Amino acid sequence: MISLNRSSFLSNSGVNGSGVNAQRQRRQPPAFVKVIASRSNQDQKGRATSERSGSVLVDSTLKEMKDHTSSSPIVDPESAVSGGVKDVYGEDSATEDQLVTPWTVSVASGYSLLRDPHHNKGLAFAEKERDAHYLRGLLPPTVVSQDLQVKKMMHNIRQYQVPLQKYMAMMDLQEMNERLFYKLLIENVEELLPVVYTPTVGEACQKYGSIFRRPQGLFISLKEKGRILEVLKNWPERSIQVIVVTDGERILGLGDLGCQGMGIPVGKLSLYTALGGCLPVTIDVGTNNEKLLNDDFYIGLRQRRATGQEYAELLHEFMSAVKQIYGEKVLIQFEDFANHNAFDLLEKYGTTHLVFNDDIQGTASVVLAGLIAAQKLVGGTLADHKFLFLGAGEAGTGIAELIALEMSKQTGAPLEETRKNIWLVDSKGLIVSSRKESLQHFKKPWAHEHEPIKELVDAVKSIKPTVLIGTSGVGRTFTKEVVEAMAAINQKPIILSLSNPTSQSECTAEEAYAWSQGRAIFASGSPFPPVEYGGKVYVPGQANNAYIFPGLGLGLIMSGAIRVHDDMLLAASETLAAEVTQENYDKGLIYPPFANIRNISAHIAANVAAKAYELGLATRLPQPEDLVKYAESCMYSPAYRNYR
To answer: What is the domain range of residue 339?
Structure first.
C-alpha cells in the first residue's frame, strides 16, 4: 500500500500548514494572481492590471541578449514585448505572454501578425487595426464579428462525418487563431469536448505520427538527460502555473503509445484554458509497442522503454528542473503513467511538490461526485452501499480509496473499516486475503477475507454489491448476465462503465438500461447518446474528469497552495454533486450538463481554495472575500482584444 500519511495514498493528508503559518508575517499580499488559465492579470476584486508577471521586459531582454551575443540590437522600449498596455500591439488591456525566447524580441505585424495564433483575428480585424498594423491588402475588405466566425467554424466542423477529421480541424484552428478556438470550445463544449478530448483524442494519439503537423508542448527524451533545465528554458512562456506531463505508457485504454501520448497533455491544455493553461510535456523514454517502433511515421525514440534507475533519474531531473524554474507552486499533473510508476511518483513527490495524478485522484473525485449525487435517487448514504470494482489499477484503487475516505468522514469510522465495504476484481479474480503475498502494494488494502472467485458474475452473486464500477480497460465485460445479476439484487443498481475510449467501455448505455429493465442508474467514461426504452428516454451521464481537474487546478493556483490534500478532492466531489439539479435527476442523470462547466469549475475552484486556506496550505494572502467571484475573474476570456 502506498501511504503518504499512513492512511491514504491519494495525497499527502499529513501535510499541514504549520510551515505556511509560520511565514505569514513575512509574506506580502500579492498585487494580483497570475493564473495561466486566465492569461490575464487580475487584482483580488477582478480588475485587470497592467503589471505582468513573467513578461519579457526590455532590461531583462537586453541583458539576456547581451549574454548570448556580442552584437545585440538596440531595442526601442515601446516595441518591447511586455504584454501590458504598451505592448507591441497596443492592446487595451493585459493579454497573454508573448511566445518569445528570453534572448529575442519578436515584433509581428502585417503578414506575420496573420500567422500569429495568439493575436490573429482574421477577418475580425477592424479598419483602424488594418491600417495600424499593415494589414491592408492582406485580407479581403469584409470585417466580420467574432460571433459570426464562431458560427462559420461550427458550420464547417459539422460538415465532417469522421470525428478525427473534426479533431484535426480544431487543432488547425488552434494553430491559426487561439482566441477563436477557445471561444468555439467554450460556447459549444458539449458538442466539442468529445472531439478535442475523449474519446476522439485516443484515436488522435494512435495516429499522432501520421497527422503530426506542428509541435505543441515540450518533448523531453533520454537524449536530453542532464540538460532538462536547458530544455525547459526553451519554452517561451515564463509564467507557467500548470504542467501536464505523461510518459505515454498507458494512454487511456490503448496501452503504450510512447511519444504519441502527447495528444493527452495537449487536450488537457485546451480544457484547462477553456474551462477553468498549462505546459504539455511528454517524457520520451522509448516504447515497447512494436507496431510503433516499426512505423515510419512514429515521431519518438525508436528504442525499448527505459526502466529502473535510468527512468527514475530522468524523472527526478525533470521534477527538480521544474521546481527550479517555475517555483514551488507550479502544479504538476501526472497523466497516463503505468500503474507502477503512477503510484510511485505520487508517493515520492507528493510531499515535496504540488502534484496531482488525474488518473488516480481526478477520476476518483468525479466518480465520488456521481455516487454522492446518486444517493438522492436511491436513498440512504454511501455507508449503506457495497461496492464492487472490475479493475484494480490506478483508477480503480484511487476511486475505492476516495470512497472509503468519504465514508470515514461521514460516519467517523476508521478508514480500515470503511474499506471493508469495497471489493475489487482484477485479471486473476476477486482480490482476497489468500492472494495478499503476491499482490502489488496498492492492491493489498483491498484483500478481504473471502473464498477465491474467478468470474465477475460469480463475484456479483456472492458479494451482492449495490454499485458496480468498471475501470478494467476491457470492453464488453459487463455482460448481460452480470447486469441482470445486479438488477436481481437491487431495485436501482448503480452501474458505472468508466473505461475509455468508447470501444473499451465495459458496456453501453443501451445495454445497461435494457438488461436492467430501465432500472439502472448509469454513467460512463465515454459519451453515449440518449436511449429510449419502454417508452421513456434515458440520458446517460458521463463521468468525465473534465468536471474536476480544471476547477481543482484553478483553486490550487488562485490560493497559492503548496500541496494537494485529500480534503480538497472531497471538497471538489461534494461541490460537483451539489450542482446536479432535480431536472437532471428526472432524466436519470447524476452529473450536471457540461454546458454549465465554467460555472461549475468556478464553484469547485472556490471550495478547493477555501479548503487550502482552512488547512493553512494557501500562500496567496489575504484570502479574497468572495472566492467564487475571484475564480470567475481569473478565468480566461476568449473575446478579441482591441488593438490600437
So the answer is: 207-353
